[in-house]
Amino acid sequence: MDSINILSPKDSPFGLSYEEHIMNFWKYLLSVPSDKSPREDETGERCGIGQTNSNSPVFYLANGSGKFERTCKVPSGKGVLIPVMVVEISDKQVPNKPVEDLHKIAKKDQDSVTSLYLRIDDKEYDMNYLSTYRTHTDAFDVEFPENALYSAAPGKSKAVADGHYIITDVLPPGKHEIHYKSSLTCKGQDCYEPNFEQDIKYTLTVE
Predict the structure, then answer these.
(1) Contact present, 114 and 122 (Cβ < 8 Å)
(2) 183 in a domain, yes or no?
(3) Do the domain assignments include residue 1?
(4) C-alpha to C-alpha distances, 29 to 33, 46, 48, 117, 175, nearest whole angstrom
(5) Per residue in 153-188, pLDDT tens?
(6) Single pTM value for the model
């Protein structure tokens, strides 16, 4: 099987910058109530919620605290966004903080990463490689629904994202396995989470 091409942050994958894709990823993920969220999904049954009929050129995989094995169908003709180690901070999650503080908290979170690993089919990528894909965004607008992720109050919010995101070229039809693991340990003040660990394996069927 040919290896799947990873698109560079220096390019504009599918006509958008990496930063724009990342903002769209979070706008999508935060718009889904927590009881339907692909982030809280142990099996992959929710992976297509809000995406099955989307005209986005990229299909979003989800992050999540813990270990998950998810099985998912992906429409043909799309790349995937892989959230190897990511964070989003909004003024709903840390109330009464100005945007400058959101940037600082997001940056400190991702400065605290201790491990990164990605395998796409048979090709593995280590921390040195993945760290070159770190992207920090400008502030952007999101809207939380009722029963939102992170127990955020519903309504509009300003958010900032940081982290290690990978965007692939269009996936060839057939089966693919994507496995990513990451961890962080944050010390001192302004830590969004002192510890975070994820180990997520997706078995994708592109058709």
Answers:
(1) no
(2) yes
(3) no
(4) 9, 12, 11, 22, 24
(5) 999 999 999 999 999 999 999 999 999 999 999 999
(6) 0.97
Q: Which residue has the tokens 């995101």?
A: 165
Instruction: Provide the 10 A C-beta neighbour count for residue 17.
Output: 15
Q: How many residues are there in the chain?
A: 207
Place of tokens 């892989």: 82
Contacts for 110 with CB less than 8 Å, ≥ 6 apart: 85, 87, 134, 136, 162, 163, 164, 184
Burial of 55 (C-beta count, 10 Å sphere; 0-12/13-18/19+): exposed
H or E stretch at 135: none
In-domain check, residue 33: yes
For residue 140, the cross-strand partners are 159
Q: Exposure pattern of 141-160 as b/e (b: 16+ CB <10 Å)?
A: ebebeeebbeebeeeebbbb
Q: Where are the alpha helices (DSSP H) in the chain?
A: 18-31, 99-111, 127-130
* CA separation, residue 159 to residues 6, 11, 90, 156 (Å): 26, 24, 4, 10
| Maximum C-alpha span of the chain | 51
Number of domains into which the chain is organized: 1
Structural domain that includes position 17 = 6-206
| Structure tokens that stand for 25 in this block | 């990823």
Instruction: Tell me the C-alpha distance between 172 and 78, whole Å.
Output: 9
Backbone angles phi, psi at 168, to 5 degrees: -100, 165
pLDDT at 38: 96
What is the per-residue pLDDT for 1? Answer: 59
